[in-house]
Amino acid sequence: MVRQRIVFISLVAWLPLLLLSAFEGNLLGRGAMVPFLMDMEVHLRFLVAVPLLVAAELVVHRRLLGIGQAFMGRNLIPEAAGDQFDDAIRAAFRLRNSVLAEVLLVALVYGVGVLIVWRHYTALQAATWYAAPTDGGSTLSLAGIWYG
């Protein structure tokens, strides 16, 4: 279901930005120096890069399945460490599929990355579709909150 996931994830990321920017009047730029429709970075990110990353997940998953078998087949893992190797593989899969790990990563990225780093240090210091500059950094619009 890679195609469906690509379409769904891209639309869930991009479509609300379009609708919120239109709702706030920042679609074509009445008050924004960088209106939503002219911000090529966001369109490329959500309509090109995100679909490529979702498609790459399948390619990586298929290739990783054979790597463990190749380690064993080429005798890179001593027989005495076979059980340990299997346990490590199972632990890696559990961590990869862990909802708690994903929630913690999202909280860390949003808490530090969006609220501190992006908002105060990397966001444009001009009126854009996602933020308006203030003395303390910037104030996010509704679309900017979704973008974050």
How many structural units, i.e. domains? 1
- Contiguous low-pLDDT stretches (5 residues minimum) are none
SSE arrangement, N to C: HHHHEEH
**Based on CA inertia axes, which overall geometry fits?**
elongated
Which terms summarize this structure?
5 helices, two-stranded antiparallel ribbon, mainly alpha, 148 residues
Task: Kindly summarize this structure in a few lines.
The protein has helices at 2-24, 40-73, 82-96, 99-122, 142-147, and strands spanning 131-134, 137-140. The chain is mainly α.
Description of the molecule:
The protein has 148 residues and is mostly helical. It has one domain (2-147). 69% of the residues lie in helices and 5% in strands. It has five helices and two strands. It has helices at 2-24, 40-73, 82-96, 99-122, 142-147; strands at residues 131-134, 137-140. Strands 1-2 form a two-stranded antiparallel sheet. Helix 1 (2-24) packs antiparallel against helix 2. The longest helix is centred in the middle third of the chain and has 34 residues, at 40-73. It is elongated. The model has no long low-confidence stretch (mean pLDDT 86).
